[in-house]
Write a structure and sequence with these properties.
Distance between the termini of chain B: 5 Å
CATH architecture of chain B: 7 Propeller
CATH superfamily of chain B: YVTN repeat-like/Quinoprotein amine dehydrogenase
Largest sheet of chain B: 4 strands, antiparallel
Radius of gyration of chain A: 28 Å
Shape of chain B: globular
Helix content of chain B: under 10%
Structural class of chain B: mainly beta
CATH topology of chain B: Methylamine Dehydrogenase, Chain H
Number of domains of chain B: 1
Order of helices and strands of chain B: EEEEEEEEEEEEEEEEEEEEEEEEEEEE
Structural class of chain A: alpha/beta
Strand content of chain B: over 45%
Strand order of the largest sheet of chain B: 1-28-27-26
Strand order of the largest sheet of chain A: 6-16-15-14-13
Oligomer: heterodimer
Chain lengths: ~625, ~350
């Protein structure tokens, strides 16, 4: 194991340096070579504030003022990152800052830019803000600067109204929407896609028994269908588990459906082309920035994206703070913020007046999960269309709220047939760890090879993993034959899954990476953080700060945001109104053309193959 | 005092031999190598008391890269391989013939995938219900072993900031330790209501932590490092471990440490024997004893340590990659080493 020449002779990559993973090649532009002067063969790279310069030795020795040829800076764009599997998220998270709130402000304050600014806000972001600006349980210790002096409980709806005022009156947005109506549309399409897949699977079962993970004549993909709204999951699947891609729903996420709605449908209403609208979305998640940057959501004709810029909940809060907008009152704060820049960016966007009103239902409620209720939308579909009454049972796997099984059975008829045939089996699965188990389970049940990491990459490069040589896992072990035929007896526990609501974050979208951090609350009064005289104990000084505390704090905070998310869920069933509008929208956009609807509401995924092979890279 | 005597030399790997693992319940020794294979040997005592090793089987594994690490389940029926191809292989024999001892076909029961890059180490917990692995991708994974060679991922621990070199389970409790290129050791437990989490980070080494070994009773943890030191950490409280001793043990990087009960001359306060090996090619054996209980001596007094045997050039000019005590009763003084020469060697510690 010595650091010897042997290092180059084996596949040993045991010694590393940080950030070796970026493999973005430096492209050669091959410009016509300039005539070289005498002595120019030897050059040096000189660096100053304005950049890098290639300077000939002659130039240096002459002491000439010739600065030399300015070298191009190597640049890595978001798209380079998306196309590479050198690393999973690290470089991306850095580049993501290119889509930032400063970018939004610079567009809004640019008088030459005449695009109509529209902003769409995700409901999870509103819940995060509402939770942070509501009085905290331990209000005695008012270390929380966000806390209102009044004891008003903020609802996401109220927050939405206040944020809307901020976005229109201060920032100059022409329209402020929530993304729930887009989600309504996405959920409907999601259910449609599920039905297509299910019909295809049933068809196949009748003919040859098992389903194969390949599109067939009808084009429907196999079951189980996996949710597609989480960009973190999509990114991971494309890079590490390409065998999962056929299972992932093709339906666009609510953010991208909103993008289509804004640029196409609302655009038409305003008489604007897609590139005449500047669409910003506020999301609980950094990876939504990656999603918006996908090539699939770029309009080649108008050279514009469906969502031009994504900011996180935290960035929206930052903007409000910078402009002195007090979310507690929904007005400009009488006291200018002391820290940070004073209002140096006077947004004087000349929003065109006399724009027509665009009305979509506000904050539609989708009962189920705070991550979008994808699983519940399908459950509801079964419940409402089944000819026989169905019973739903929910089982938490290993007592975890992040991993639950949902089973729909035909309700047994009393005194008669006791059969309770399973009609549908779905899982809710949040967090990277649970996601691993779903990938394993789906791979095992459906007989697709789980492939990840170097092995998968090498395997697929060398021809469908044939070179691997690892004997195939014995797919069906003794006594588990029932797995293969879902209709066989004793199906209950072994029945394969039909649907999985996958989210990469533990706790789902309310705990997204872009959400507000829990307010700085003292660890716990019960632990004696604050002494009798109200002094905060100096944990650092005493060196016994329980690190476990932070962990619990975060989890409690997620629970709180979850609770706030449902706080003002209206009981009024607005589905009918929303459904009508969906029909209207689809009629206006695609006039009953099935293919056109799919073009607008669905997308595609592709495996990101790594060109990094261990043998080729040494570090 | 003691001498390290050669018992057997087991060549056969075509490339460097990375690790050796003794089957805990049957007389089988396994080794793995950069040649992507695992070799299995059975052994028995001859009438004159010497150990005789027989090569009984070679598993070609099918890993596409180096097999870096191997571990037996406590039952001795299952073998796990950790490979630089990022995967973990789980191997079993269809029928275990009593007299064949490891001979015959070993079948790949499943492949555990998930690590992004090279898997560096695998380890079974003392009850065999958990399997841990670590990787250059900086993560430590905890898997639960289910029937039918099924595994469920219980945790992906992203605590280290660099390559994780080794994982080691406490001998009786479900406490996991990992050592890393970030120079730290992390300790993890399961939170019954939630996930696995890191409850302690042990700092002190000035360079990579290559190997970890718990004392037989689990009240101490030994770590081997690129800083040429072995550190001994003592359990000061349930979830608190403190550095109590640093031994400048070798002239070059220490790649491996192993801790057994040994055959101490006096059992009083014995903490057993610690074997260390590494880049300087030597194998050293240390005897550790509990600090004498003297009035006024602090609770965290270091254990007493004594170098009782040294074997220079165990594998000639080559590095020693692993040193491993035999865990079986009556063989506490036998250890195996693997080296860059591709050879596995068996040694016995005998009084002079």
């Amino acid at each position: 194991m010595a650091f010897s020449g042997a290092l180059t002779l084996t596949d040993l990559n045991d010694f590393i340096t940080p950030s070796q993973a970026c493999i973005k090649p430096v492209e050669q532009t091959n410009k016509p070579t300039e005539e070289k002067g005498a002595g120019a063969a030897v050059t040096e790279i000189r660096v100053d504030e304005s950049g890098y310069y290639e300077v000939s030795q002659a130039g240096i020795s002459n002491g000439s003022t010739n600065k030399g040829r300015k070298l191009e800076q190597a640049q890595i764009s978001l798209n380079d990152c998306l196309a590479c599997s050198g690393c999973i998220t690290s470089a991306e998270s850095v580049l993501i800052t290119l889509q930032s709130h400063t970018e939004v402000l610079s567009v809004l304050s640019n008088d030459v830019d005449e695009r109509i600014p529209i902003i769409s806000i995700a409901p999870q972001s509103l819940a995060s803000l509402a939770a942070a600006y509501s009085p905290q349980p331990r209000s005695a210790s008012s270390t929380n600067e966000r806390t209102s002096i009044t004891d008003e409980i903020l609802t996401p709806r109220e927050v939405f109204h206040r944020v809307r005022r901020f976005c229109t009156s201060i920032l100059g947005f022409a329209y402020v929407f929530d993304t729930n109506f887009a989600r309504h549309l996405a959920l409907k399409e999601h259910v449609k896609e599920f039905i297509e897949r299910q019909q295809e699977a049933q068809q196949k079962e009748l003919t040859n028994g098992d389903s194969v993970p390949h599109p067939t004549i009808t084009g429907a993909l196999p079951l189980p269908m996996l949710a597609s709204a989480c960009p973190g999951w999509i990114c991971y699947a494309e890079k590490a588990h390409s065998e999962m891609l056929p299972f992932i729903a093709r339906t666009k996420s609510p953010q991208q459906v909103m993008g289509t709605l804004v640029k196409q449908w609302i655009g038409k209403k305003l008489g604007k082309r897609p590139d005449e609208i500047y669409h910003v979305s506020v999301m609980p998640c950094y990876d939504k920035k990656l999603e918006a940057s996908r090539q699939d959501f770029y309009d080649d004709v108008f050279k514009t994206r469906d969502v031009d810029c994504v900011v996180t909940t935290g960035e929206l809060e930052l903007m409000m703070k910078e402009f002195g907008w007090d979310l507690n009152t929904g007005t400009l704060s009488p006291v200018q913020p002391t820290d940070g820049p004073s209002l140096s960016i006077p947004v004087k966007k000349n929003t065109p007046i006399n724009l027509p009103g665009v009305s979509i239902p506000e904050l539609l409620n989708h009962p189920g999960t705070s991550s979008g209720s994808y699983l519940h939308a399908i459950l509801r579909h079964f419940m409402s269309t089944s000819p026989v009454p169905l019973t739903l049972s929910v089982k938490a796997v290993r007592n975890a709220a992040d991993h639950e099984e949902y089973i729909l059975r035909e309700t047994p008829i009393e005194n008669g047939n006791t059969s309770s045939k399973i009609v549908f089996k779905g899982i809710k699965c949040y967090g990277f760890r649970n996601l691993q188990n779903v990938v394993r389970k789906v791979g095992r049940e459906r007989g697709v090879r789980v492939e990840s990491g170097a092995a998968g990459r090498l395997g697929s490069a060398g021809g469908a993993g044939a070179g691997r040589g690892v004997r195939k896992i014995r797919a069906v072990r003794k006594g588990r034959g029932a797995e293969d035929s879902p209709s066989a007896g004793g199906e209950d526990e072994d029945r394969r899954f039909d649907y999985v609501e996958v989210m990469a974050c533990p706790g789902g979208c309310v705990n997204g990476g872009g959400q507000l951090k829990p307010p700085a609350m003292p660890n716990s009064a019960a632990l004696g953080d604050i002494d009798a005289e109200g002094y905060k104990r100096d944990w650092d000084g005493e060196g016994v700060a329980p690190s476990v505390g932070a962990k619990w704090g975060d989890r409690d905070w997620t629970k709180k945001v979850e609770e706030v998310y449902w706080r003002d869920a209206k009981n009024v069933d607005e589905d009918l109104v929303a459904d009508q509008l969906v029909d209207e929208v689809l009629e206006e956009l695609c006039a009953g053309d099935d293919a056109e609807r799919k073009r607008l509401l669905r997308t595609e995924y592709r495996a990101v193959e790594s060109d990094v092979i261990g043998l080729a890279v040494k570090w | 005092m003691y001498q390290v005597t050669a018992v057997a030399e087991l060549p056969g790997h075509d490339d460097r031999a990375w690790a050796a693992a003794w089957n805990p319940s049957r007389p089988i020794l396994s080794s793995c190598s950069a040649d992507k294979s695992v070799r299995l040997y059975s052994y028995s005592s001859t009438s004159d008391g010497t150990l005789k090793f027989n090569h009984v089987s070679t598993i070609p594994t099918g890993h596409t890269k180096t097999v870096r690490s191997i571990a037996w389940s406590p039952s001795g029926k299952t073998l796990a391989t950790g490979s630089f191809d990022s995967n973990i292989g789980i191997w079993e024999q269809e029928d275990i013939g009593e007299d064949e001892l490891g001979a015959g076909e070993w079948e790949c029961m499943t492949i555990l995938e998930g690590h992004e890059t090279e898997c560096k180490s695998v380890a079974y917990s003392s009850t065999g219900t958990l399997l841990a692995s670590c990787s250059r991708d900086k993560t430590v994974w905890v898997w639960e072993v289910h029937p039918d060679a099924d595994f469920e991922c219980l945790g992906v621990l992203m605590e280290h900031t660099q390559d994780v070199k080794c994982v080691a389970w406490h001998p009786s409790e479900e406490i996991l330790a990992s050592g890393s290129y970030d120079d730290t050791i992390k300790l993890y437990v399961d939170d019954p209501t939630e996930d696995w989490y890191c409850f302690a980070t042990l700092t002190g080494h000035a360079s990579t932590v290559w190997s970890l070994a718990w004392s037989p009773k689990g009240s101490y943890l030994a770590s081997a490092s690129d800083d040429k030191k072995v550190r001994i950490w003592k359990r000061a409280d349930n979830y608190r471990w403190e550095s109590v001793l640093a031994i400048s043990a070798h002239d070059r990087t220490i790649y491996s440490v192993s801790w057994s009960v040994g055959r101490p001359k006096s059992g009083d306060g014995s903490l057993g024997w610690l074997a260390t090996a590494g880049g300087d090619g030597s194998v050293k054996v240390w005897e550790l004893t509990e600090p004498a209980e003297v009035e006024g001596i602090s609770k965290n007094a270091p254990p007493e340590h004594r170098l009782i045997a040294t074997l220079p050039s165990a594998h000639g000019v080559h590095d020693v990659n692993t040193v491993s005590w035999c865990p079986r009763g009556g063989m506490e003084d036998v250890l195996a080493t693997t080296g860059d020469d591709g050879v596995t060697r068996i040694w016995k510690i005998v009084p002079e």
